[in-house]
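Q&A log
Question type: sequence-to-structure
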Amino acid sequence: MSLYHILFYAFFLSSIPVFAGITGVKATVNIKTIQQDMVHISILTPHINSDEILYIMPASIPGTYARMNFGYFVKNLQAYDKKGNVLPVRRENDNEFRIIGAKSLIRLEYDINDSYDDKTYKLDVFNPAGTNFQVDTNIMMGHQGFIGYFEGLQKVSYEIKVIKPSFFWGATSLYKKSVSDTIDILSAKDYDELIDNPAMYSKPDSVSYMQGKTKITVAVYSTGGKVTAQMVAKALKPVTSTVEKFLGTMPVDRYTFILYFVGQERSDLRKREAYGALEHSYSSVYFLPESSDPKSLENWVAQTAVHEFLHILVPLNLHSKEIEHFDFKEPKMSKHLWLYEGVTEYFSVSAQAKAGEISEKTLLNRLRRKIISSKYIMPNPVSLSELALNVMQSEYQKLYPVIYEKGALIGLMLDIKLREVSGGSITLLSLIRSLSTKFGPAKPFDDSVLFSIIEKETKPEITDFFRRFVDSTEEIQYEQEFAKIGFEYAAKKNITSYSFSGIKPNINTIEDDERPDTLRLSVKDTNNVLGAKQGDIVLSVQGKNINLDKEDDEAYQALFSPQNDDEVIIDVIRNGQLITLKGKPKSSEKTEEFYLRVNPMATKAQKAFGASIFH
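Response status: OK
Response body:
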């Protein structure tokens, strides 16, 4: 190397912030002593070879598609040199703190508020990505709400010293070392890994079990104490089994389910309608309603967990550079949201159908609802690529939920197309597996060339599919595509409908552990064929108990959506007495929109094609 090159590189290296000596960030998070509902953070900073530097809190994190500006919750940030002198700090915006005289910087000190208790509602922080401080009870430790990074130094190592009450236990997939009963050390190779591995500290309530070769840990906090880890693990085991059967093998050696259940008493959280979950590479965080009813719990967990758990396939093993090198300051979106969320949602439906967890009727109803929802959410078509690239903008935020509806339908149609053009040798799942082998957790693809890569793996017709239905707004020909797999679809169809006119369901949620959900009848026509009266409590239909938490419950459907005019027998409680009602539903002609049923005229080949996808 010439002297010129040596001088050039010396100048280049001196012009960017670098750590001298120590190569990582060390932070102390005190959740033992919480004052004024704020947690104190102390950051030890190695020497920085720059006069100024930005300390940045994330504007957003991977797996979420909205700005949340976690720096908003940072208060009283101060910077110090080794003599204890205060260095000037200028707050540039919610998330960025400019430290002047950074060459002398040795320590940052600041406090943070939690997003759960935020009363300003300036920000809409999705609760599974948020933070919660309940003294001596629960700490939801999404690191994005606690720790930031120095600009240009996102890839240095992180060590978090957690000072905690002795009776707290931390649930996380991050490497954790318990130094004492009041100190844990959490270690991450870089900032990305730190953010990808949240923690929850509370009194221990966890269960572990093996799913194949994967260790599953279930950690639960329930505000009213109604839900336990044992209960959740019982509900989760069928989910993890379904995913293993669907994938054939588990692509991770460990996985942590972190679940926060909120009761009626936390109306401030419930009214924000932030139920849901957030996936990470080796864990997922859930914010769900509290229920002591096993059926209700099972359905809430199953509805969310299959989708989140399947993210271990996409995007963990297949993702673009925008995700691999996530810009926490100014997030850049990948155009392939259809892949990360849409295909994952399709796989969650397909996996449950294959495992027999949902019936064919439930499958058809889910697909039908996705068609209806996608039309309702996005009446004016926008391509899924355009939506993905602009999803952080407010006008596109309103359209974001469509990715779980139309995106899943795109997944199904792509699966049909792949099988069709390859003679059944290539499926969407086999394609994802092949691409995951080519790339993987640490090797991202280029956003702009994914479609051409897929074409090389499959057929040229697949690129045309992406051009028409992902990059453009062309509508899927549902009638034609569903026919291929033995289903009949029509935008509108005249059908014979059956119903018990004058009767509607009235579901009352009450605080009664023995009967948390009660189905009462709302009767408008006192001369109804059943002889039902206002307030009758329905116990069973056709000898089967009503399960309000079960999707498309057979007993519920027999009463409120009968398929023929057969007599229906109903047991109800009226004024404390058990009464049996009988009657035949009346028929009428009506036009049904988005009609989707099994096609009784389907050929053997069409039935076999559908069975290969869903059975």
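Response note: Confidence is low (pLDDT under 50) at residues 1-21, 509-516.
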